[in-house]
Amino acid sequence: MKISDDSSPISPSEEDVSKPLLRSAATNSSIDVMLDEEAMPPQLLQETEPWKCRLREEQELQNIINSKPSLILITGSSGSGKTSLALRFSNRFAYFCRGKFDQMCFATYMPFGAALSDLTEQLLASLDADELSKLKETLPKAVDGEIGLLMTAIPPLSSVLPKQDVPNVSSYQGIELLIRLRHVVTRFLEFVCHERKETVLLFLDDLQWAEPGCLAMLSAILRKQINGLQVIAACRSEEVSVDSALSILLRELEDEGLCIKDLYLRELDIEEVCDFVSHSSGLSKSQCQQFCMMIYQQTEGNLFYTLELFRTLKSMGAVSKKDGTLHCDLEILNKSRNTLSRGAVNDVITLKLQKLSLETQRALALASFMGTRFDSRLVSLALDQDDQYFLSSTEINSLPRIVRQVCHTAYYEFYHDKVQHACSTLLTEMENSQLCLGAARTLVDKLDGTMGVEENAAIISRLLRQSLHLVNSSAEKVKFAEIFFLAGKCFLKSTRFNAAAYKFHDARELLPRRHWRDHYNLSLSIFTASAEVEHVVGHCDNAERLAREVIENARLFLDSVVAHTVTISSYSSQLLFEESIQLGLQLLRKLSIRIPSRAGKLQIAIEVLKTKSKLTKFRTADILSLPVMTCRESQAAMEILAHTLTSAFLSKSPYQVPLSMAMIRLTLEYGMNAESVSAFAMFSVIMAMMSNIELAQQYGRLTLDIMRKYDTKAWVSRVYALVYGLTFIETMSVRKVIEPLMEGYRAGLVSGDTTSSTGCLYFATLFRFLGSESIDELIKFGIDYRKVFNAFRHDNVLILFNIVLQAMENLLGRTADPVDLTGSFLNQKETEKVAEQQGNRAAQSVLCICSIIVAFTMNDYARAERIFDFCQSIPYVHSKFSRCCVLFFGGASKLILAHSSLTGRWRRIRQAKKCIKLVRKRAEMVPEDHNHQVHFLEALLYAVEAKKDRALAAFDEAAVCCEQGDSLLHRALIAEHKSYFLRGCGRDDEAIDSLILSRRTYEKWGAKAKVVQLAAFPFLLKSNSHTGSVSIADGSSDAQERS
Prior knowledge:
This is Orc1-like AAA ATPase domain-containing protein. The chain is mostly helical. The strands form three sheets. A six-stranded parallel β-sheet has the order 1-6-2-5-4-3, sandwiched between helices. A three-stranded antiparallel β-sheet has the order 9-11-10. The protein has a two-stranded antiparallel sheet with strand order 7-8. Strand 7 (319-322) and strand 8 (325-328) form a beta hairpin. Helix 13 packs across helix 18 (417-424) and helix 47 (968-984) runs antiparallel to helix 48 (988-1005). 49% of the residues are buried.
């Protein structure tokens, strides 16, 4: 949408055509801005005539709150009274908490941390002894045991919860930390609203400055739709573009069905300014007209500016009554103008500040560069004052509408960002630079050798950014480069990857020319971290360039391991799997890890035998008792193996076998580390693919035991994706592995392992589709889950997920060609071409599975046969359950074609018998999933062999078995093809009944394309051809359908 920046006066009677913030829907609410008594300094108002003119807006906002929307956006320009309006509702909820975003001090969690700390203090103050005791018992369970992380996020809780409950959270880094925080925050809010049965108003101020991490936290809270929680956000609509992260999030939330209501506050017009001045001065509007015009010209109707200017003019004695009218002497104001500010509004704020002592002005100027909220102790320390200077300063604490103390702590915040800006312009540009540099030097010197340097590195680096041009000493530049490096690490912990990249860039710029020689360790740390974060933010070229510099200058090979793994991962991100694998193999050779140069069948067999031979010497208890790996070379090898194995697994390269075998052998020899668990899980998968089911199950269970022993929640998603998605599916019914896979998906979102999480989600969706659940419901969930893939940019898994969704869309009848997988999610020809070029065997296999199901269901048996033949020509990379589906539809297609054509008849029958044999073998292990398939294939075979009685009996047996397995697709297929067979036998009435059953079952499954196909033409009974076109007219009763 177009956001208006028109500042011309608007009459209250005119229609406000402003649209909701950054969205194209109709305006939920458009109101006229009136003045708020709370927003006006009390000393400006006549106590006998308080001005109450905002009842309409309050009532409008109350009406919106009563409708219980997910989010209320109060929008308008800076100073339009958004915050004051929201604050009027603070006493209408059981708890009110507020967080404010800061344009000069971005922090992913800070606004939410401030709000939740405020909420917690109110909660604790309202509890009696019994309620407090109950909270201590129930809260840990409510946040899924993450009480330590919750206490870190909400410090007030540490005063009531036992300290021994706090786990070590230092291992939570990057995206993992943010995802855990989202989970904990939403669970805590649910606890307050549901368990405590209280209402909470969460107010987020200045939402336009929220970075993507903050928006992700907000979206997690809103999507939870917590009953009893109302979220209100104030946002400057003119400062947010339509394609910003905030705009996109709002549109996505509305698309998902969340209700978002807008309240737009426009600027005052001249009439409203006159009302304000008239009420304040006691004069009529006509007597104030000229004065009000001057005020309006200076402020353009902005509420905050109008209040500030009028108050300052009165305090300066520039306002007087002459001849019954109000006059203003602007000369008094002009004499005090600050040449650095623009217009009377900024001047009046600056004028107030200039009346303060120089010491106080310097303190406020320095604080303005630290952020909207700042630590007064840090300001005092930087200015070489006592740490109580700010707290005890009468001058600072008596400042009206400049700064205010936060909850009786050492923290202060500026009353308004315009005040903060005015403070930043109190001194000249050179004086500001000198002030910031001196403060940074003082802080570095006084905090040197303490944790304070690292904790405040982000603030110190912000001060240095204002003054780096004054730094000439090489030694000092190196010291400051370390500060920027520490600041970057702080940003990494809060998932601010882009901010971290900028800090690391500044650190590199400060290093001297020969820094690799003179400051090797610092250079290695900065460049290695830079390469990692550039890869995380998707700048692969920068990541590879920085990694290359590390590799070229590293004194030891082990110093360059991280840079090498960055390069391997960067290649994989660009789908350059072969380059990624070859680089990994080359590095492993340097570490004397023997991986065959050619991964043929013989080499793979040898690697497996070597590993199995080693494993025979270890019992399960021995493996569980292995020590922790401490050898640095082995740890480096495991890191390289893990990254290379990821590329091999995604591309389904045969190297995944020797790579995983090498990881297991290293674990057995040197001990357990983080990568070991995935190695054992991968070993179980390989054994399953080699049909060594017993060993596969044994090591699948061992992997789960290792995970439970070390209680590592971060491994749950990865292990479940491999063990349940590829190992246990060999012996378990597909319906039994879906829930563990969804558990793995949810665990990955909590732990931050988003790659494995999306893998679990893909497997679960594929199995639900192959298990013939209702595709109507499946595609609805799939579209929602697809947003998860897009959010985490896991393109390798997303392409597989899109193939499954496209197959469902085809069957739902939403595509032009029902059998070609081209539609909203996929273009089949393009996907096939890309998969072939990249050697993406996984994509090729999923295409085969989904295409053959769609083709067979839509009676395109020739196409299904071609897909089956192609599938046999490529290395198969999925589970035996998925492979069995291909064998079933391929074998059935060949038998139907053999029945209708003499060409290639015996060859097709022979191939179909092989399929039946393999499906029967699979059915012996999981009869509920495959018995009906065996009987169906046998029925088709008997039909080809003209054994009518046996064929009919096999159809009936298939139907009975299908009822036990509850597969809608197979139930419909059996009824459909039984109908064709019965017609060939001349049993027309039974054929029609069977076809009606088939059509109803397809309808229940959701395959509307198939239902339309069956109902498209009159019921034609053609010859005895098994592939004859059979369809029926739509009807609401059996009689109508039969007719």
